[in-house]
Write a structure and sequence with these properties.
elongated; alpha+beta; 5 strands; about 40% strand
Length: about 60
């Protein structure tokens, strides 16, 4: 195996006199992490950039 492992963490920011960060990574399910590289053929991970993550959020959340 040769490549990179990616892990995405998402946080929801709320401000009610106190800044509150809520971890919402669970909404990505199994897409919260992935591998891209060569492992019995090429493997691609879809959510490596902010724009790819934003597209997913706009469509699903």
């Amino acid at each position: 195996m040769e490549g990179k492992v990616y892990q995405v963490k998402l946080y929801q920011i709320s401000e009610n006199k106190i800044l509150n960060l809520k971890n919402i990574t669970n909404i990505l399910g199994s897409n919260a992490e992935g591998f891209e590289g060569i492992a019995e053929g090429k493997v691609y991970y879809k959510y490596k950039t902010i724009s790819e993550i934003k597209k997913w959020l706009d469509k699903n959340y």
